[in-house]
Amino acid sequence: MGPVLVLCAHGTRDPHGRATVADAVAAVAAAAPETEVREAYVDVHGPRVEDVVAALPTAASGPAGVVVPLLLAAGYHVRVDLAAAVAGRPDVLLAPALGPDERLVGVLADRLARRLRPGDAVVLAPAGSSDPRAQADSEQTARMLGARLGTAVGVGYAAGPSPSAARAVADARAAGARRVLLASYLLAPGFFQGRLEQAGADVVTGPLLPEPRVVQLVLDRYRATGSAPAEGA
User: Fold this and answer.
1) How many C-beta neighbours within 10 Å does residue 193 have?
2) What is the pLDDT of residue 228?
3) How far is CA 220 from the centre of its chain?
4) What domain of life is recorded for the organism (predicted)?
């Protein structure tokens, strides 16, 4: 058996969001039965990622674990919180965030393509982050989605930085869009998805989970990171 896969989500108080993440953890475990998968969270509730990492047994050789962020951009939680969680365990590796990635763009594009009409505007709606690098990741995803759809894609955040999703929708209407499609760039239902549904768009897509391509992306991040030598090895 290889290193333990610690799948770390943000955390939410919404029971539907918690159930969605738990289902994703179960789907990852079912897709890789040879791998031990442990659930962890970086905020809101436990099990806290630092506690899960600290409890990992030391491996005889190679990495003991790989923390895979169930997060769409490399913001503060990935660069600071998760980095701190593994800092005391050189035998535990930290994988990159899930996005930007063409597979996520494919999920978004597939959901929009069935609804997109001539004259429509598309706005990508991430949760939002104060970290400019996370914002850059979201903007890159919007460009990738625009290239896939053959139309410009704006960005509007559920919370945090400007423009808000509601402002981006209003701006698209003011620019002459017949309809505005808001592409949810969230993983699970909860508070942020609710904000998107109140942003005034004609169409709001659902969160990315459940989705087999996201499960495969998690496993790819795990395998690519786990095959690298552990620090100090």
Assistant:
1) 23
2) 60
3) 14
4) Bacteria
